[in-house]
Amino acid sequence: MPRFAANLSMLYPEHAFLDRFEAAARDGFEAVEYLFPYEHDARELAARLRAHGLQQVLFNAPPGDWNAGERGLACLPGREAEFREGLAAALRYAEALACSRVHVMAGLVPAGQDRVALRPTYVANLRWAAREAAKQGVNLLLEPINTRDIPGFFLNRQDHAHELVAEIGEPNVQVQMDLYHCQIVEGDVAMKIRQYLPTGRVGHFQIAGVPQRHEPDLGELNFPYLFSVIDEVSAACGWQGWVGCEYRPARGAQPGGTSEGLGWLRRWRAG
């Protein structure tokens, strides 16, 4: 059975962020992920994890100026020093939270440039970052993101991500396979799970209903079937990662909306 982690940046929006840990544990989650921890003291986050018996399984490295629209620095020439400072901050939090996975957002392709020209910067940054992360046993994840949600994002396809992992050539660099993004960009999701999971290069899954990014039982993907595919392939190849629930509850911030929308998870556990 896949192991599910609650994404606290999206789930439980009716609660203040620090109160979402308790809400997730109450609904039976054993692990959490979120976008960024940096507005909170790492000791407070660690205390919330301990208090509610939760494991931190993923968060993102600093993305640059998020409020100004930046979505990562890894592919941007001339921002290498800032990228390295951000990676150092991420690794400090990873150590404090006992988290072994950090997603490094690739960034947006600047106007007038193309991906081919940016690729050497991206590969060099990730190669350096991977060697730093390896010193404390942290894996770095690369995530292809669809161009509808983030127009101009450097990395969009699964095959591109796996090519980059091979080029970077560091054993602690893996792909974050978000099935929501994969369906929007490429489709053929089940076969891509079968293709890539046995390679050892998939470090984490994320899920959401397509197209509205609500609960996984809403929309065009048959998630019970996809969970069974993950189970089948995991049993064959020994994969033991997590599936992050990175979706927006259909009931929004209404009290209890996230919990009421977890029928898909209760049915899966019961089955």
Tell me the layout of helices and strands.
Layout: E1 3-7, H1 20-26, E2 31-33, H2 42-51, E3 55-60, H3 80-97, E4 101-103, H4 115-134, E5 139-142, H5 158-168, E6 173-178, H6 179-185, H7 189-196, E7 202-207, H8 223-237, E8 242-245, H9 257-260, H10 263-270
Describe, in plain words, how this protein is organized in 3D.
- The protein has 271 residues and is of the alpha/beta class.
- The chain has one domain: Divalent-metal-dependent TIM barrel enzymes (TIM Barrel).
- Helices cover 40% and strands 14% of the residues.
- The chain has an eight-stranded parallel beta barrel with strand order 1-2-3-4-5-6-7-8, surrounded by five helices.
- Helix 7 runs parallel beside helix 8.
- It starts with a strand and ends with a helix.
- The mean pLDDT is 97.
Question: How much helical structure, as a percent, in the residues?
Answer: 25-40%
H/E element order: EHEHEHEHEHEHHEHEHH
CATH fold type: TIM Barrel
Structural class: alpha/beta
Total strands: 8
Q: What is the alpha-carbon Rg in Å?
A: 18 Å
CATH homologous superfamily - what is it?
A: Divalent-metal-dependent TIM barrel enzymes
CATH architecture: Alpha-Beta Barrel
Number of helices: 10
End-to-end gap:
10 Å
The total number of structural domains is: 1
Largest sheet: spatial strand order: 1-2-3-4-5-6-7-8
Report the CATH C-level class.
Alpha Beta
Structural shape: globular
Which features characterize this protein?
alpha/beta, eight-stranded parallel β-barrel, TIM Barrel, 271 residues, globular, single chain, 14% strand
